[in-house]
């Protein structure tokens, strides 16, 4: 376990680290320069065809004709300009066409095709693409294909079918078309929230607004027979009030354009165009449109991006802390303020967690809370024996919040404990590993009682990771994917995230037998000849995945395991140097999954993960780095 690759390391020319150091320094400078005026990071999410299409439909159905005419036209033009050559649309401008986004874009343009010949031509191309993929465009076929794509999870299939029904793709006869939209039991929103884990709802936890609004729209257009229709008619005033109560101040549910648009579209379709929730939703869409006429899937990932950046910069520092000279105190105050201090009205999550954004539509979740905890420790005063009281209080609350989220199987879900096996509510290896890292980092500073609870939770978390590890040694994550792979699973991301946790846990926790060795062997075997990772060929590789793999293998390093060949690490580092033009250019790849498997890319990801990977790689080999420094000084 502890054997080093000294011989392999010595065989590498001393000068080979010079471009790596230069790339890391340039990338670090670019990352620090990307902060907003308030001192933190916001990043920039990719524009989304799906978001743009749903926003255009919402404005068309529930907006003001005079006020929103220009915005609708701009969105329409953006959709047409970004239609793929095959006639379909992908979630981002770098994504392959898929049936979900294509149907929604086709629906949005179809509503305008009668008055616009360019939109009509785009619809014809979309129709041909759908016919090729589905065999035909009969309403029954479209409904079946959408249902098949998402299985028993109706979180996204029902909204797609709703917009198809409204645009006439499911048939011109209203009630018959709406019968093809799967029914949602919106009346169940009236039951106490703690019951949701037992109800096995057909939508995930975050989709409660869609459950209510779309369920009601479907009821209005295609009511069920009595007595169920009586129950739903009775329930509507109550769930309508609940919908208003859980809508964030800014009007955007989860700060997400698709979810907010779907709710607004459904209310308009149900004859509730003047509903306060629809009005606030339209306001959110007006404020979040971009200058080019598009919308992203979410307003921003400011908290997530900031914690990633803080951790990446801190990795290369000798003490593992974020430098005071780079704005540590300001960042610390900002991050502490993002912690939720009250029960969340949407998920009823207790205080103590963090969301992905600093905006009112955010919801506390496992990944962002773990990231915030790790970032807070990096922001502590470097010359003190323990973190400040304010940090320790925030961290204790955050650690306890994560403990309350842990599922019975030992894994961590995203938002709500015990909701079941639907996507984004089930336990996930990447989320579990992140929580384990956060607990382990703060463990020495917490109370003895909390330390004991975390020790037990860590054992349970490791049991989950052992169970979730695949036969080949890899782990599949929840929130990231790879569109070049058949199952779209990004096992490079998942395995890297788990290894980053196991690298620190190995120093004080007994790990399941050969868990690390198997994971490292798989990750090394997945590397391309040019040193990159991602997809089935080097041409499919990304900066993001290459950096994540290098980061994880460097964390395990030659200090911990004999199966990490130095050549693989060095080749990967030089690959990043080349791909980023020595730390100056960072093209993004659509590796991110959003809700319901919507693809996105985030401009900060390749920068932040390159900074972290190269920083950790150089720090893992201090003797060689010192030699390179001496040579650089001599030169």
Strand-helix topology:
Blueprint: H1 6-10, H2 18-32, E1 47-48, H3 49-62, H4 65-81, H5 99-110, H6 117-134, H7 139-150, H8 157-167, H9 174-179, H10 196-199, H11 208-221, H12 228-246, H13 257-269, H14 276-288, E2 295-296, H15 302-315, H16 328-337, H17 366-378, H18 389-405, H19 429-442, H20 448-468, H21 491-505, H22 515-525, H23 543-560, H24 566-579, E3 592-594, E4 598-600, H25 604-620, H26 622-634
Antiparallel strand pairs: 1-2, 3-4
What does this structure look like?
The longest helix has 21 residues, at 448-468. The chain folds into 3 domains: 1-33 and 475-635, Alpha/alpha barrel (Glycosyltransferase), CATH 1.50.10; 49-296, Glycosyltransferase (Alpha/alpha barrel), CATH 1.50.10; 300-468, Glycosyltransferase (Alpha/alpha barrel), CATH 1.50.10.20. Helix 15 (302-315) crosses helix 17, helix 15 runs parallel beside helix 25 and helix 19 packs antiparallel against helix 20 (448-468). It is mainly α. 55% of the residues lie in helices and 2% in strands. A hairpin with a 3-residue loop joins strand 3 (592-594) and strand 4 (598-600). The protein has a two-stranded antiparallel sheet. A two-stranded antiparallel sheet has the order 3-4. The chain has 26 helices and 4 strands. The two termini are 38 Å apart.
Q: Top keywords for this entry?
A:
635 residues; Glycosyltransferase; 3 domains; two-stranded antiparallel ribbon; two-stranded antiparallel sheet; disordered N terminus
Please tell me the CATH architecture of the largest domain by its name: Alpha/alpha barrel
Mean pLDDT: 88
Distance between the termini: 38 Å
Put simply, the count of helices is 26
Question: Biggest sheet: strands side by side, in what order?
Answer: 1-2
Query: Hey, roughly how much beta strand do the residues contain?
Result: under 5%
Summarize the biggest pleated sheet.
2 strands, antiparallel
Please mark out the parts with pLDDT under 50 across 5 or more consecutive residues, or reply none.
Answer: 1-12, 623-635
Radius of gyration: 25 Å
Shape: globular
Helix content: 55-70%
Q: What's the CATH class label of the largest domain? A: Mainly Alpha
- Going by helix content, strand content and strand pairing, the class is mainly alpha
SSE pattern, N- to C-terminal:
HHEHHHHHHHHHHHHEHHHHHHHHHHEEHH
User: What is the number of beta strands?
Assistant: 4
CATH topology of the largest domain: Glycosyltransferase
Number of separate structural domains = 3
């Amino acid at each position: 376990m502890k054997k080093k690759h000294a011989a392999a390391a010595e065989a590498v020319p001393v000068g080979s680290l010079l471009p790596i150091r230069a790339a890391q320094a340039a990338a670090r400078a670019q990352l620090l320069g990307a902060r907003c005026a308030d001192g933190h990071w916001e990043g920039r999410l990719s524009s989304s065809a799906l978001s743009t299409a749903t926003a255009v439909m919402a404005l068309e159905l529930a907006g003001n004709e005079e006020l929103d005419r220009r915005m609708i036209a701009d969105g329409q033009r953006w959709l047409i300009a970004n239609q793929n050559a095959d006639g379909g649309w992908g979630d981002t401008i770098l994504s392959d066409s898929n049936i979900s986004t294509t149907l929604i874009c086709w629906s949005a343009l179809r509503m305008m095709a009668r008055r616009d010949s360019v939109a009509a031509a785009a619809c014809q191309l979309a129709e041909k693409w759908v016919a090729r993929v589905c065999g035909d465009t009969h309403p029954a076929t479209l409904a079946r294909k959408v249902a098949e794509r998402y299985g028993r999870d109706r979180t996204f299939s029902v909204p797609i079918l709703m917009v198809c029904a409204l645009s006439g793709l499911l048939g011109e006869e209203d009630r018959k078309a709406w019968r093809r939209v799967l029914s949602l039991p919106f009346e169940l929103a009236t039951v106490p929230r703690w019951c949701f884990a037992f109800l096995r709802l057909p939508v995930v936890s975050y989709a409660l607004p869609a459950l209510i609004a779309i369920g009601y729209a479907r009821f209005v257009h295609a009511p069920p027979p009595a007595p169920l229709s009586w129950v739903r008619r009775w329930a509507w005033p109550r769930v309508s009030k609940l919908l208003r109560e859980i809508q964030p101040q800014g009007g955007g549910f989860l700060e997400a354009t698709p979810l907010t648009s779907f709710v607004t579209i459904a209310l308009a379709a149900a004859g509730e165009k003047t509903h306060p929730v629809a009005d606030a939703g339209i306001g959110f869409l007006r404020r979040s449109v971009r200058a080019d006429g598009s919308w992203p899937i979410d307003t921003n990932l400011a908290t997530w991006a900031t914690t990633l950046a803080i951790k990446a910069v801190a990795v290369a520092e000798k003490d593992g802390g974020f430098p005071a000279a780079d704005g540590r105190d300001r960042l610390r105050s900002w991050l502490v303020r993002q912690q939720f201090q009250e029960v969340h009205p949407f998920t009823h999550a207790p205080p103590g967690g963090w969301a992905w954004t600093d905006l009112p539509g955010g919801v506390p979740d496992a990944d962002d809370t773990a990231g915030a905890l790790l970032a807070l420790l990096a922001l502590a005063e470097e010359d003190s024996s323990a973190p400040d009281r304010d940090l320790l209080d925030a961290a204790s609350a955050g650690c306890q919040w994560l403990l309350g989220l842990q599922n019975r199987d030992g894994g961590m879900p995203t938002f709500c404990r015990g909701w079941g096996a639907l996507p984004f509510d089930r336990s996930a290896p990447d989320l579990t590993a992140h929580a384990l890292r956060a607990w382990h980092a703060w463990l020495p500073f917490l109370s003895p009682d909390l330390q004991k609870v975390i020790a037990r939770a860590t054992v349970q978390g490791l049991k989950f990771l052992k169970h979730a590890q695949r036969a080949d040694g890899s782990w599949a994550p929840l929130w990231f994917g790879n569109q070049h792979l058949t199952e779209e699973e990004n096992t490079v991301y998942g395995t890297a995230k788990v290894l980053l946790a196991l690298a620190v846990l190995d120093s004080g926790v007994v790990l399941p037998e050969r868990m690390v060795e198997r994971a490292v062997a798989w990750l090394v075997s997945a590397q391309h000849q040019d040193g990159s990772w991602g997809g089935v060929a080097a041409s499919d590789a990304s900066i993001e995945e290459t950096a994540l793999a290098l980061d994880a293998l460097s964390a395990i390093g030659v200090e911990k395991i004999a199966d990490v060949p130095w050549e693989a690490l060095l080749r990967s580092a030089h690959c990043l140097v080349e791909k980023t033009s020595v730390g100056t250019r960072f093209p993004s790849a659509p590796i991110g999954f959003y809700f319901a498997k919507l693809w996105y890319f985030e401009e900060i990801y390749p920068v932040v993960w390159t900074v972290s990977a190269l920083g950790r790689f150089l720090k893992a080999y201090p003797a060689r780095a010192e030699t390179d420094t001496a040579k650089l000084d001599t030169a």
